[in-house]
Amino acid sequence: MDVNKNSASLSAKAKVRVPFGTVSITEESKRLINEAIDSNWVTRGKYVQEFEERFAALFGVKFAVSVSSGTDADALSCAVLYDYGAQRGDEIIVPALTFVATGNAVFQAGFMPVFVDVNRETLNIDPTKIEEAITPKTRAIMPVHLMGKPADMDAIMAIAKKHNLYVIEDAAEAHGAQYKGRMVGSIGNMAAYSLYAAHIVTSIEGGMVITDDENMAEALRSLRNHGIVNKFEFKRIGFSAKMNELEAAVGVGNIKIFDQILDKRRRNLLYLINKFEAFQDTFITLKEETYEKIGPHAFSIIVRENAGFTKDEFVSHIESKGIDSRNLFYSIPTQCPNYAFMGKKIGDYPEAEYCSDNGTHIGIHQHLELEQLDYVVEVVKGFLTARK
Ligand SMILES: Cc1ncc(COP(=O)(O)O)c(C=O)c1O
Q1: Which of 149, 208, 154, 155 is nearest to 173 (CA)?
Q2: Which fold has domain 7-22+258-387?
Q3: Among 31, 126, 218, 305, fewest CB within 10 Å belongs to which?
Q4: Residue 157, Cα to own-chain centre: how many angstroms?
Q5: 160 φ, ψ to 5°?
Q6: How confident is the model at residue 14 (pLDDT cuts 50, 70, 90)?
Q7: Atom of ligand 1 nearest to the CA of 98
Q8: Tens of pLDDT along 307-352?
Q9: Where along the chain do its domains lie?
Q10: CATH number listed for the domain at residues 27-255
């Protein structure tokens, strides 16, 4: 599979010069999908099993359990904790700044999310603020490796150990990220991945939970299928969250070109990190520390306080030049209206709110070429020069 193949047609179709996302579906995946259809076995079967085995091997863990989405991966991981003494209504600590799915999944599993502010430089949960959020009802910490930037796992694991809490990594955006020589996702008790179309490993829609714990893996397999334990015997309050053979066929083909996709995206990420160093007085952008490798999901750009222009002005300029972008999420408890019932007010999560009010993110995917990234840099330079 040539990871360069789709770029021209995608751009033309979308009428943008730098599209936000893309998907790589290999010829092998197409063949496997047809085989599954012809065999008349399209629900969970041999391709689901092969995909799970390949995923576990890729991430260096014993078990990978496939589910229907990254949100289900988050929710089922939380629900596993009922096997470990958790009660409905207990609390799980999550960062205030993340895709809304993280908070939703905690509720869907029957827990209360307790939001903790982030650090605008790393986009990740601020470990110095976690302990004050712990109560007798806290059962787990769920750090999110936003934009593939590893959360401060040493600090998080130390707090979890001290307070006897589980750690569920939301690695939805962190495929291929590394932290101090370890794969992100293999550090906590479980890690949840989204396999949505635009992500590095994809099954179009889908999710995966990885763990080294056999009992947790067993609970996850039960939970994805209504809490089943034996033929028509149901032990847990489960979900209907199974992956099917067609999705797994896409996943099997796609995971085989993981290295190609990762390398190309890493090249693009490092290229932009380097080019944006020239704009550090104006923007906060991702930085890679020596002890980590960022999983190249997308590239965040946050307008600094003294920049002299607003995020909206910047975004409307780059969008008018054909550079596709997305908001840098929201402070879930204070900026998502569906969370207003929690009674939090603007100002409670200043860092997350700052990132949302002043931040955007753009694509660095495998179908983007360096000329397109040079174009991004030129557009940004042009915008800044015109404002001087
Ligand atoms: C941080 C985070 N968590 C959870 C999810 C949910 O994944 P899905 O869209 O596959 O349900 C996403 C989606 O990208 C995400 O970015």
Answers
A1: 149
A2: Aspartate Aminotransferase, domain 1 (3.90.1150)
A3: 305
A4: 19
A5: -60, -40
A6: very low
A7: 1
A8: 999 999 999 999 999 999 999 999 999 999 999 999 999 999 999 9
A9: 7-22+258-387, 27-255
A10: 3.40.640.10
